[in-house]
Amino acid sequence: MYKGKSIGVIIPAHNESTQIAGVIESLPDFVDHIVIIDDNSTDNTVEIIEKYQKQNSKITLIRHDINKGVGGAMASGYKYAAEHGFDVAVRMDGDGQMDPEDMPALLDPVVADQADFAKGNRLFTGEAYKKIPKIRYFGNAFLSLFTKIASGYWHVADSQSGYSAINKKALKRIDWDTMYRWYGQPNDVLVRLNVHNLRVRDVPVSPVYNIGEKSGMKIGKVIFTITWLLIRLFFWRMKEKYVIRDFHPLIFFYALGAFFYLVMLVLFVRMVYVWSLTGHIPTINALAMFFSFMSGSQFTLFGMWFDMESNKELK
Q1: What is the mean pLDDT of the chain?
Q2: Position 68 in a domain
Q3: Would you say the C-alpha torsion 171, 177, 182, 184 has a positive or negative sign?
């Protein structure tokens, strides 16, 4: 128990035979339940977990017959936590990259009912730029910006951090079977939390790298995959939150912004075509294109502003 609340730790693991023992041994004593999801490992991860399970009654092992991705593993863990009434469920990956000493800081706002979901932010510390591999650091910054727009949580950064704590209300409210299954899972969760008007807080945590972990993530591919995911999630959130659940006029601003950007693109193509044929830029065409750009930008920025105002109480 932690301050009167039952705490469950959800650990997704896939081929983590070199790291999983250290993760289990490092968990604080106040943790009541340890739920480890083996996502169809092909090494001896399961044997190691079963060894610890015999020594520790807190450990529950859930095995997947096929690899469902980190999101699929977390879906199984969150559903288990909701069904068994955990007050708070903490995600800790099986690769040892999440410092257990940061767990109380994540739990405090959730246990005090100041947030429904608290997530780690490795970028608060000045050590982040030094410790996080540069391509991941800049890729994370890029995706964090797009996640702000897609999720509506404008105060949240380090969107790719999976270290998080979620309360019972949020566990039961979200349909975990529809959550994205692969590396974009933390982004997907934020969007779903926002649709349900759940409070999210960023908590500073320590970046942990180069401890023997092995990553299967291909940064170049993941950035494009998650960017496309965020585009789809943005439109899904607009529909779910501002049309179906509670209509908001910001929809018109975003729609007009998109319309004028489309007109700008058409005018740009026409201007280049005429320029290539005649050697002169058509003045009216250029002015209309510039007007469309300015109109599209203004409508889009007003839409963002309305979205920010609508979600300011969810900090």
Answers
A1: 91
A2: yes
A3: negative
What CATH number is given to the structural domain containing 15?
3.90.550.10
Q: How far apart are CA 26 and CA 215, in angstroms?
A: 21
Nearest to 165 by CA among 30, 15, 69, 40: 30
Q: Are residues 141 and 199 in the same domain?
A: yes
Convert the pLDDT of each residue in 44-86 to its tens digit: 999 999 999 999 999 999 999 999 999 999 999 999 999 999 9
Structural domain boundaries, residue 72: 7-242
With bands split at pLDDT 50, 70 and 90, how would you rate the model's confidence at 216?
low
Query: Are 297 and 176 within one domain?
Result: no
Together in a domain, 208 and 259: no
The candidate with the shortest Cα–Cα distance to 20, out of 85, 96, 88, is 96
Tally of CB atoms within 10 A around 95: 23
Asked if residue 294 is part of any domain, the answer here is yes
61 and 153 both lie in a single domain: yes
Give me the long-range contacts of 135-139 (CB less than 8 A, separation at least 24).
135/219, 136/219, 139/219, 139/222, 139/223
pLDDT for position 97 = 85
Q: Find out whether 253 and 310 touch, Cβ atoms under 8 Å.
A: no
User: What is the Cα–Cα distance from 221 to 207, expressed in whole angstroms?
Assistant: 23
Do residues 259 and 230 both lie within one domain? no
Residue 94 corresponds to which tokens in the numbers above? Answer: 């099986």
